[in-house]
Amino acid sequence: MKKSFALICLIIMIATGCGLETKTIPEFYKRNLDEVTKIVIVDGSTGYRKTMTDNLVIKEFLDKIKDIKFIPEENQEDRTGWRYSITLFQDEEKTFQFGLTQVNEHYYYTDPDIHPIVDDFYKSLDGQEE
Q: How far apart are CA 128 and CA 68, in angstroms?
């Protein structure tokens, strides 16, 4: 009886993808994206970072990524390395951080692919890398 119950629970977990669902950044972000005052993008291959504080630049960036779908990966095993990490702030309060393939400790692929969008935007930002 216990084995049957455990097997049924396992099948349900696999079928539902452990409760993960496809979401966009506004669905992950528990606040108003219009109130973001700073964004820091860190390049995972170099460790360099670029900071955006200009409201127009912030809005442009968020507009480019806000409709991208983060679709849960079947394989949720830990991984090493990352391409970019993006941190949102309201004033000086860190409000949300995510990677191109990881949000809230879960792994995703994106549609459309977020990497070229963030990569192009990062490279186009004025200012020196910190």
A: 28
Domain 21-124, classified CATH 3.90.220, yes or no: no
Domain edges within the chain? 21-124
C-alpha to C-alpha distance for 72 and 69, rounded to whole angstroms: 10
- 54-109 pLDDT per residue, tens: 999 999 999 999 999 999 999 999 999 999 999 999 999 999 999 999 999 999 99
Residue 95 in contact with residue 61, Cβ under 8 Å? no
3-state helix, strand, coil in the chain (%, to 5): 35, 30, 35
Closest CA to 26 of 78, 67, 64, 60: 67
- Alpha-carbon span 23 to 52, nearest angstrom: 24
Amino acid at 4: S
Distances (CA, A) of 104 to 6, 21, 27, 129: 27, 13, 12, 26
Q: Using an 8 Å Cβ cutoff, are 31 and 95 in contact?
A: yes
DSSP-assigned beta bridge partners for residue 70: 23, 110
Residue recorded with tokens 């409000």? 95
